[in-house]
Amino acid sequence: MKIHLSRGSGLVSMLLLFVASAFAADHPHDVFVMTSTNDATGNSVVVFKLNPATATLTLKTMLPTGGNGGATGNAGAVQFADGYGAVVNYGSNTVSRISRDGDTVSVAGSIALAPSCIQPVSVALKDSHAFIVGSNCAESHSWPQGTLEGSVVPLTDSSSAQIVVGESWAAVTQTSGSVLQLPLSSGIGLAGSSSSVTLPSDANNTPLGAAFWGNILGFNPAHSADSFALVHPDGQVIPILGPQPAFPSNAPCWLAKGPGNIWYSGNSPGLAISIFFTDGQGGTFYKSVSLPGTPTDVAVSRDNKWLAVIYVASDGSGARVSVFSIDHYGDLVLAATSAPIGVTSFSGVAISE
Prior knowledge:
- The protein is mainly beta.
- It has one domain (about 25-350): Methylamine Dehydrogenase, Chain H (7 Propeller).
- About 5% of the residues lie in helices and about 50% in strands.
- It is built from 1 helix and 29 strands.
- The chain has one helix at about 1-25; strands at about 30-35, 45-50, 55-65, 80, 85-90, 95-100, 105-110, 120-125, 130-135, 135-140, 150-155, 160-165, 170-175, 180-185, 190, 195, 205-215, 215-220, 230, 235-240, 250-255, 260-265, 270-280, 280-290, 295-300, 305-315, 320-325, 330-335, 345-350.
- The strands form 7 sheets. Strands 12, 13, 14, 15 and 16 form a 5-stranded antiparallel beta sheet that branches.
- The longest helix has 25 residues, at about 1-25.
- The protein is globular and about 50 Å long.
């Protein structure tokens, strides 16, 4: 009898464990969308909660970063990965850490830029490193500890828009007309040097948003007729025609890599998200999905299920966030839009699952 009860208890325990596991699988962490107010007198992280069942995006919290914003013409001001995020404080020469524990989000201190480096505009998180670019330097830090590592890369052009990181190199877009290659040093971030990619005349006007697909860079030369381009590690550039008519009617500016061979770009004057398809040697513009305002950054969740876009609403209500679900074909379906919260414009956007 005792042996029988023991076996029964074991079966009950296994059943309870199975039920708990199934419940956890069906009830993952809430999906949060994070952005920043970019206020020059006191920056804050803004956290929205996505409620797909009710098609709502509700304000969860606003957290002062302890620094000042003020960056313009940039992308990647907010990033999030594996429990920690980062937001740039342009006016304070710092980057603040964002920590998520379950469904609780907090600001967990700040990282100072290297001596003489100023005005961070963009951050990228890759493995155990944080890569930061500002007005005059690019640098890397251990993450999330924040210790400066590798070599600081000086920049002679103060027009940096975004830093992104691939497998063997990082890239910095500069709105003055350049894309910089920054080699990586194994385990310690940036190797300390940079070189300029030679851009063709039809894809060199105002590089802004950027993203990597493995070790291939995609970026938006926003005011060019070919407003999307691929860059290989050897410097080969492949321009791709964007939506027509080109700038000033359309200008894909802010870029996120989607599932498979899909890229999503915030098209500011076109009031849309423009979708591109590529392989490693070329691509094509597919279509644009309309927005009720001017987009200023986009992000795709790590599971490729959601796309978030921040924009300034055309109706004058200020900054908004919209989240789209991404279907099996890469098409976008509006899931939810935030209500106005009294902020004129947001800077940077990231998704935490």
